[in-house]
Amino acid sequence: MLKSFRIGGIHPKENKLSAGRAIQPIAVPAQVIIPLSQHIGAPCQPVVKKGDKVKVGTLIGKSVGFVSSQIHSSVSGTVLKIDKALDASGYKRDAVYIKVEEDEWEETIDRSESLVSESAFTPKEILEKIAAAGIVGMGGATFPTHVKLTPPPGTKAEVLIINAVECEPYLTSDHQLMMEKSDEILVGITLVMKALNVQRAIIGIENNKKDAVALFTQKAKAYPGIAVEALKMQYPQGGEKQLIDALIRRQVPSGALPISVGAVVQNVGTIFAIYEAVQKNKPLVERVVTVTGKEVQRPCNLRARIGIPLTTLIEAAGGLPESTGKVICGGPMMGKALASVDVPVTKGTSGILIVPSPEAKRKAMNDCIRCGKCVEVCPMGLNPTLLMTLTEYGVWDKAEKNAITDCIECGSCSYTCPANRPLLDYIRLGKGKVNGIIRARKN
Amino acid sequence: MEQKLIVSPSPHIHSGDTIQKNMYAVLIALIPAFLVALYTFRLDALLITVLSVLFCVGFEYLIVRFIQKKEPTVLDGSAIITGVLLAFNVPSNLPVWILALGALFAIGVVKLSFGGLGNNIFNPAIAGRIFLLISFPAQMTTWPMPATAAAATDAVSSATVLGALKHSPEALPAIQEMFLGFEPGSMGEVSAAALLLGLIYLLWKKVITWHIPVTILATVALFTGILYLFDPIPLYDPLIHLFSGGLMLGAVFMATDYVTSPFTKKGMMIYGVGIGLITVAIRLWGAYPEGTSFAILLMNAFTPLINNYTKPKRFGEVVKHG
Predict the structure, then answer these.
(1) Long-range contacts formed by B191-197: CB under 8 A, 24+ apart
(2) Any idea what the Cα angle at residue A289 is, between residues A283 and A292, rounded to 5°?
(3) What span, in angstroms and rounded, lies between the C-alpha atoms of A396 and A405?
(4) CA-based nearest distance A334→chain B, Å
(5) How many Cβ contacts (< 8 angstroms) between chains A and B?
(6) A178-228: pLDDT as tens digits
(7) Domain contains A144
(8) What is the total count of domains within chain A?
(9) What is the mean predicted confidence (pLDDT) over A340-369?
(10) Which CATH number fits domain B19-308: 1.10.3430, 1.10.287, 2.60.40, 3.40.50?
């Protein structure tokens, strides 16, 4: 029996249309817009000004504060301006506009394809290089990686968990990266194990990617301490707490971090970026993005520089179909619907999903028939319909008592509800309110 | 050219499950029992079922449309189910005006006055049956002989198995007849076999889980089985209890009503055990020969309380409490 997490879960149709499509680099357009806030935490301070020449890898945004992450230029050229630009969040935020000229890279970056498996860096040096390269969680959460790899005092990591689950339907960027960069990823894992001083790492892969399971099982034999585990397909297995439960049968308590059960989780794409940062001196300036959708001409996996407009990527996949009703940045379960496709690729852009018009609209909502299906599927063991009602009526103390803040916003409840109730919309609202109340109480 | 894009919060896909799909699956699951009813009680069964559905759907439409002044949603299937279940719960020779009253009570009072589908505390069909049983005890307990019985020609009334069990145990039909449904009784209740087929369909289609029906049946079997071990008389025979009266219909189709049963697996099992215990208690020691409907009605009332005390097991709780 394949392992999986033990509470709730759903199994949406996978629709991995771009599976097996080799990663194609995409040409850089005449201008890129690089947002100064691509991560959770404080936005960067720009360190370039209008007219400055930059190369690929030149630092353009300096992180301020502990939870923040450096930003580098992904192209060579001239800084046009620093101005507000619409990004995938739907807000206009500070960004660096760069006019592209040539493709010149910083000399320190090793651009060769050769594998560098030896590393003499100390744990501290590895962490510094990760911080300097501006690496963030690339599964979509975009939490600064060097912070995550620095366990708070008094805690000790025991096991490194590699999130190669990719449980969101449609997305294939991690899968394809694993098939093409397995050696680099395994070296990356050893680097992180060293940085954390752990002897054990487990790569969790959902069993719909049998080729990746086989490849890594075979290759990991050469790396002591690294194990590969095929997992039963179940959403949201890529949720940090769910993956830890699936792999090591420990449940992170409410409100606590994975380190409280001795685990640190890293996305497989992040691991590849760490390899490039440490072994190749390459900052995070590009990433793999899946462009997909039922009516997209050529669903594909693209290697795109940060700051390229999504329209360029969509063109590469055959353009926006006539029938388009919705464009999602990320997967269909947790991705964000975009108001405009004229926004740049950022460090957290794992995919662009184009949904045809009829499917893009929600169906009318009915009264709750108390079937309990939302309770059954909730991976956090919550009662979504109760939380929705409590939010509707503003009963915040009860919502807090019923652990509304535990919600990971996976959307399994709304997905399942036969009455089409927007359970997660309400819970998100209530969660925000309750979190605000809790913060106010602490102050 | 800028296309207008739809912006809505995640998730952006849906399972495609609907209230209608669940309701119509229940109706499909009721077909075997309906066929047995047709075979056993002939045209009367058809007439009562059709009329009961028409009454329930009609009353719902009229009340929602003209009293509540809202858009009627009769096609969601729930009123049709109430109609079929109410028909299954009455003798096939029940006077039509009594049936109409039962439908009006079930739909008008039990369902719509509480706010309609999803908001009712009691299962409408169960409450409708009990309303009729208390108001018209004579008509509700005069069962026609099954058309399949040898001396069926013009026999108009006969005792049910449970009635016989209490008063004249020598008149019991064979257990396989009870299982197949060729005994006197309310028209949809008689065939345990047909109802079990329905249960298998509902489980297969994932409309319900096993927790409620299985705990009810197991509780009844266990409770009577223990008594039977000490005193092996027909009154305590677990097989007779399982295959007679409204137990099977109640356990599979009425107790599992989403609206009036608990959310969580643990809650469902407490609810099932409660129904089983009350059913046996009424059957053995109560004034009525049959207790399933009362048991379900009582446990319906306990559902909010059960929901309150059986919170789902939260993620991380295992760790917290050791």
Answers:
(1) B191/B32, B191/B33, B191/B36, B191/B37, B191/B40, B192/B242, B192/B243, B192/B248, B193/B32, B193/B36, B194/B32, B194/B33, B194/B35, B194/B36, B195/B32, B195/B33, B195/B248, B195/B249, B195/B252, B195/B253, B196/B248, B196/B252, B197/B29, B197/B32
(2) 175
(3) 11
(4) 5
(5) 158
(6) 999 999 999 999 999 999 999 999 999 999 999 999 999 999 999 999 999
(7) yes
(8) 2
(9) 92
(10) 1.10.3430
Q: Do A424 and B10 touch (CB under 8 A)?
A: yes
Closest CA to A413 of A368, A360, A376: A376
- Measured between CA atoms, the residue of chain B closest to residue A403 is B314
Residue A393 belongs to domain spanning: 373-442
User: Stretch A254-275: mean pLDDT, rounded?
Assistant: 94
What value does the mean pLDDT of chain B take?
Answer: 88
From B268, which residue of chain A is nearest by alpha-carbon distance? A372
Residues B71, B83: Cα–Cα separation, whole Å? 20
C-alpha Rg value of chain B to the nearest Å: 21
CATH value at residue A142: 3.40.50.11540
Asked casually if ipTM beats, i.e. exceeds, 0.85, the reply is yes
The answer for B 59-118 residues in CB contact with A (under 8 A) is 73, 76, 115-118
Asked if B9's CB is within 8 angstroms of A337's CB, the reply is yes
Assess if residue A296 is contained within a domain: no
Between CA A202 and CA A206, with CA A204 as vertex, the angle to 5 degrees is 160
The pLDDT value given to residue B322: 36
Question: Quick check: A338 contacting B, CB < 8 Å?
Answer: yes
3-state secondary structure A327-351: EEECCCCCCEECCCCCCECCCCCCE
Residue A201 near residue A227 (C-beta atoms within 8 A): yes
Last residue within a domain, chosen from A280, A307, A332: A280
Average of pLDDT values for B233-248?
Answer: 88
| Residue contact A10–B15, C-beta within 8 A | yes
A152/A144 Cα distance (integer angstroms) = 15
Domain boundary among A262, A280, A298: A280
Which residue in A436, A427, A437, A388 sits closest to A406, CA to CA? Answer: A427
| Confidence grade of residue B212 (pLDDT, cut at 50, 70, 90) | very high
Q: Is residue A390 part of a domain?
A: yes
Structure letter (DSSP) for residue A43? P
Q: Is residue A69 part of a domain?
A: no
Per-residue model confidence (pLDDT) at position B150: 47
Same domain for A275 and A403, yes or no, is no
Instruction: Give the pLDDT score at B159.
Output: 63
Measure in Å the smallest separation between the Cα of A331 and chain B Cα atoms.
Answer: 9
Kindly report the pTM of this predicted structure. Answer: 0.91
What are the pLDDT digits (tens) for A86-126?
Answer: 998 888 999 999 999 989 999 999 999 899 998 889 999 99
Looking at residue B312, its pLDDT comes to 87
Under the banding of pLDDT at 50, 70 and 90, the label for residue B286 is: confident
Asked whether the predicted pLDDT for residue B123 surpasses 90, the reply is yes
